[in-house]
Write a structure and sequence with these properties.
heterodimer; A: alpha+beta; Lipocalin; eight-stranded antiparallel β-barrel; 2 helices; 9 strands; about 50% strand; B: mainly beta; Porin; twelve-stranded antiparallel beta barrel; two-stranded antiparallel sheet; 4 helices; about 45% strand
């Protein structure tokens, strides 16, 4: 019985070590901003419940956001964001699935700041487009902070802006990502 | 003592545990959790008002809604002049100005004054929320007190005084709504309007009515709406000797930025529940007995008075 228990725990530990190089979080932040100089108010929302996972060995990196988790200063803007633009009922998630192409340059076991390039598929509003962006990976005491900023053309994701408000909403939205991953 | 078989299963389990993590999608577990979450129906209606009456929609907490509603005079011109002279009733509008406020996401209050000399205060509370994997409908309670401030009528005995309580009306409604899909939402409104003063030898102080209403979206930002209140008693009620009718309203609503416009055709001119549910003296007949329809519109403009959690710090920084 004892031997069996040891065997089971050993197996569990070894299987755990199989994914030990993964780092993840469920409290990453994504800020979206579509303000233009002619906007009457700030058009910006933040999701603080972004899931992010990274495989330190292969450089595989994934993000996922639930659209309804985006919070806005103005409730009506949040309504319009969900109902009219993102159609969160039909397209509840936005995600990124890609690879850090220069993962070899990033030493996750050593504290420091590294520049990383990620390339992959960005899925927003049910539409997937290939994207490549450069971000920063900060390693500090076992914590990995991923920071990236890039812009997306709303038209590329079939997000339609009605002509009435065409000059009040940016045609390209800025997406900022800030996630602190914990190694498992 | 564990048998070899059981051990084998245990070992196999440990391995599959490892394998499931090695899969390509690193969010498999998270997405299983998300699938189990309750998904509450949102945006059943565009506004807190369907046409004349209320919807199950509440204002977000900290949001103030400034509302202006117009109901023009009868399209046939009413008692003075003809339809063309009165531009289909545009001359004799009743205006209601109101301010609503969302206290919590499920509780809102409001006050309003209407040119029909109705002053009302209401409270609306959401009790049940429609959700996938949950309740099939949303249930809200709406309660209002209305005080009319018309001049006191001539009483048969000159020394009698017209009591203040005679001016009060109480409306209680349950709002039961279901969003069937992105475009169609329907709502049932069992209603009780209590009239403090009626000719109680003929009529009841309580008018029971069943309302039905709905919205059908035409585009993302435009919809047609309809609302009907069917009285279950007091149908023979007379108001100043006039026959009363059930109210049916049709509307077209469109939203632009911070505004919602609702254009309305209705046989009710008053915007007070006591009046359009139980005391409406105008009918829908185009030809019979007369065309006493009213055109009208509601405009709503919202202001965020108290910013939601997480945005308050930013406000402090600015100052």
């Amino acid at each position: 019985m004892k031997k069996l228990l040891i065997a089971v725990s050993l197996l569990t530990i070894t299987s755990a070590s199989l994914f030990a190089q993964k780092a993840m979080t469920r409290t990453g932040k994504i800020t979206f901003d579509a303000t233009t100089p002619t906007s009457p108010e700030k058009i910006s929302g933040i999701d603080k419940q972004v899931a992010c996972a990274m495989d330190a060995k292969t450089g595989h990196i994934q993000f996922q956001s639930q659209i309804k988790d985006f919070k806005f200063e103005k409730a009506l803007m949040e309504d319009h964001f969900n109902e009219n633009y993102m159609e969160s009922k039909n397209f509840p998630k936005a995600s990124f699935d890609g690879n850090i192409t220069n993962i070899a340059d990033v030493n996750l076991s050593k504290d420091g700041t590294y520049t990383a390039t990620a390339t992959g598929k960005l899925d927003i509003h049910g539409t997937t487009n290939p994207v490549t962006t450069t971000g920063t990976i900060k390693v500090s005491g076992g914590k990995i902070t991923v920071i990236a900023k890039f812009s997306v053309k709303l038209a590329d994701y079939k997000i339609v802006i009605p002509t009435v408000v065409a000059d009040k909403i940016a045609k390209e939205a800025t997406i900022s990502l800030d996630a602190e991953l914990i190694q498992k | 003592m564990l048998t070899f078989k059981k051990t084998a299963i245990l070992v196999a389990l440990c391995f599959t545990g490892g394998i499931s993590f090695a899969q390509d999608d690193m969010f498999a577990d998270l997405n299983k959790e998300i699938a189990k979450q309750k998904d509450y129906a949102a945006y059943t209606f565009k506004s807190t008002r369907l046409l004349d009456g209320s919807t199950i929609e509440n204002l977000a907490s900290g949001v103030l809604d400034f509302r202006i509603s117009h109901r023009f005079g009868a399209m046939d011109g009413g008692s003075v002049g003809n339809a063309v002279q009165n531009l289909y009733g545009v001359d004799n509008a009743i205006t209601k100005i109101g301010v609503d406020f969302g206290i919590t996401p499920w509780l809102m209050v409001g006050v309003g004054h209407s040119a029909s000399k109705d002053n009302d205060g209401f409270v609306k509370a959401k009790i049940i929320r429609q959700a996938t994997n949950g309740m099939p409908f949303t249930l809200s309670y709406f309660g209002s007190i209305d005080m009319e401030t018309l001049p006191a009528p001539q009483l048969p005995v000159a020394t009698d005084s017209w009591l203040f309580t005679n001016r009060l009306f109480f409306t209680n409604q349950l709002l039961i709504a279901r969003k069937f899909n992105n475009s169609l939402s329907l709502q049932l409104m069992p209603t009780l309007v209590h009239y403090n003063y009626v000719d109680s030898s003929k009529f009841s102080n309580n008018t029971f009515a069943l309302g039905i209403g709905g919205r059908m979206k035409l585009t993302k930002r435009a919809a047609i709406t309809a609302e009907y209140y069917y009285r279950l008693n007091n149908t023979n009620l007379l108001v100043n000797g006039h026959t009363t009718y059930n109210t049916f309203s049709l509307g077209y609503e469109v939203e632009t930025g911070g505004h919602v416009f609702q254009f309305i055709v209705s046989n009710a001119q008053s915007l007070a529940e006591r009046s359009f549910i139980g005391q409406n003296t105008d009918s829908w007949g185009f030809l019979y007995p007369k065309n006493s329809l009213h055109l009208g519109f509601n405009i709503s403009r919202v202001f965020t008075i108290i910013k939601p959690e997480g945005f308050k710090e930013e406000e402090k920084k600015k100052w």
